[in-house]
Specification:
171 residues; mainly alpha; 7 helices; 0% strand
């Protein structure tokens, strides 16, 4: 799967768009949307994987993040598409219902919460009903803890994202 950690498809990063990042993201989203099953899973993802290093199941939330970037990208044909919005909603809701977790704590505390944070910030406000929003916030709260180094940075980032998504001005 394509990670967009170094650029943004919202036209705020001209170098990313100039390098074809937006076109690639939009093209990938069309494929992802076309292959998304009626139960909001992808047939090529192993949802029972327990690999600790590259967790294949995490590709689900990576793909959701890619689709949210296209939804917000003014240059994408899927920009603000109701069908794409429903696909994103269904895929996030599926994840929330299953609450997949990996034996490697990193995926549970940082990997999935980061995907969730990016997707929900891009789709907020009011994207998820209250019950689903609470489940998402619980998943994101797994990043809270005593960390050092890069893990401390990720933890603080997750706390900020949690406060933004939860509209918590006191956090």
């Amino acid at each position: 799967d394509f990670y967009l950690q170094n650029g943004d498809c919202t036209q705020n990063d001209p170098s990313f768009c100039a390098a074809g990042g937006c076109d690639l993201t939009c093209s990938m989203t069309a494929t992802l949307q076309a292959t998304l099953q009626p139960n909001y899973t992808w047939p090529d993802i192993d949802y029972h994987d327990t690999t600790r290093a590259y967790w294949k199941t995490s590709a689900h939330m990576d793909r959701v993040t890619t689709m949210t970037r296209s939804f917000q990208c003014a240059g994408c044909s899927q920009h603000a598409s109701p069908a794409l919005r429903q696909a994103i909603f269904g895929a996030i809701t599926f994840w929330l219902q299953q609450d997949f977790q990996n034996p490697n704590w990193w995926w549970n505390c940082f990997g999935i919460p980061q995907f969730m944070e990016v997707s929900l910030i891009m789709m907020q406000p009011g994207f998820l009903p209250a019950t689903e929003l609470q489940k998402a916030l619980q998943i994101m709260a797994r990043a809270n803890g005593s960390y050092t180094g890069e893990n401390l940075i990720w933890s603080l980032e997750a706390m900020i994202g949690h406060a933004i998504i939860g509209n918590n001005t006191a956090q």
